[in-house]
Amino acid sequence: MNKSEASDLNTTRAGGGTARAGPAADRRQSAEGEQGFRGYVSEITRKLRSGELGALPGVFSVVVIWTVFQILDHQFLSPRNLSNLSVDIVGTGLIAVGIVFVLLLGEIDLSVGSVSGLSAAVFAVFNVNNGVPEWLAVIAAVLVGAAIGAVQGFFFATIGVPAFVVTLAGLLAWNGLMLHVLGASGTINLRPQGLVYGLTNHYFHNTAAAYGLAALGTVAFFVTSYHDARRRRAAEVLARPLTEIAMRTGAVAVIAFAVAYVLNQFEGLPLALLIFLAVVVGLDFVLRRTKYGRKIFSIGGGVEATRRAGINVAWVRVSVFAVSGTLAALGGLFLASRVASVGQTAGSSILMINSIAAAVIGGVSLFGGRGRPWSALLGMLVIQSIASGMLLLGIQTTVQYMITGGVLLAAVVLDSLSRHSQKSHGRA
């Protein structure tokens, strides 16, 4: 082989991705060189050592919390309590999903609690006080949340006012507007058996509903995982082997059918949980499988580089805040459904704190660019499990706040340490 042929071969290898330069590339090359399940285990180990913890802290927290409370009170893992827990996480969880989108940009939205309360108040006034059909009142409430989010996003993305300041002002302004909308009475009771009332009070009592959802989720997980692995192998990058996909699918099946079994021991599949899972799955698809989602991650990773790539950063930012406002409005309706009324305490600051805490505890980075909608579900499960356990034990709410604050601080510390570790390994 002459020098020219050798040069051409080296160029071809570099272009085809089988030869890479630099320490980070060498690590990827060595991981890709291992075959099958062992290679994937090596990749997971390398990620953990470099600080990519993912959802592991959240999962570990749930296991510890459930174990401790079950030891202290055997009713904690009863079908009734777990079913109630699955419904209680939905309202704040939906708001937390919107927070995930904002945190992926590396920003914050402090107004979500007030927006949720105002949207619920708009619905109650339209439907209960003025007789507007429920479906139309729901649309109006959701549009109010979306419009508020878009306006706040405009001030941040176009005018340049920091998101912290814009949404802090919104927290005060929208809460005041909510009190004004509610009027002198201060509390509006929802119509029993109505559309919004049924959001958290309707259950699918047929056992086939819960088991069918578990089977559908398991099959969907396997199909998407297998398809993703095929695409990655076609692109000649590290992919999960079939044995590992089968093991993960088995784990998902065990969890899904166990949850279905527990829910069927009480009232069946809650409508609220079904809607929440549909929203999480849908938005997870948007973030991971669409150009729009990739733009959000790109901005969180580096605004200037994203702008130079030709992406309309301002538009993406405005749309993300609109998404946050929309989900805050939906969460407000579910919270109102849970208590069957809208009062002056709706949209409290604790709601905003819990929604942000849920996203961070679930694994979303405060520095932007890392997280998934599933993080909101996991984080909300941690927070609501603490609240449920404290209620069963008769412990004061103040203690619950202290414990939740400690868990949040631990999550932020882990996030910071993870980021430093990734930088030292050339991955951030």
From TrEMBL:
Q: How does it sit in the membrane?
A: Multi-pass membrane protein
Region Disordered: start-end pairs: 1-34
The answer to keyword Signal applying to this record is no
Task: Give the UniProt subcellular location, in the record's own words.
Answer: Cell membrane
Q: Where is the signal peptide?
A: none
Keyword Nucleotide-binding included in the entry's annotation: no
Residue ranges annotated as transmembrane are: 53-72, 84-105, 112-129, 135-156, 163-183, 203-224, 245-263, 269-287, 314-336, 348-367, 374-393, 399-417
Regions of biased composition (Polar residues) lie at 1-10
Instruction: Note the InterPro entries from the entry.
Output: ABC_transp_permease
Q: Which CDD domains match?
A: TM_PBP1_transp_AraH_like
Keyword terms, alphabetized = Cell inner membrane, Cell membrane, Membrane, Sugar transport, Transmembrane, Transmembrane helix, Transport
The record's annotation in Pfam families points to: BPD_transp_2 (PF02653)
* Primary localization class, coarse: membrane
- The highest taxon in the source lineage is Bacteria
Any idea what job this protein has? Part of the binding-protein-dependent transport system for D-xylose. Probably responsible for the translocation of the substrate across the membrane.
Q: What is this protein called?
A: Xylose transport system permease protein XylH
Species the sequence originates in: Streptantibioticus ferralitis
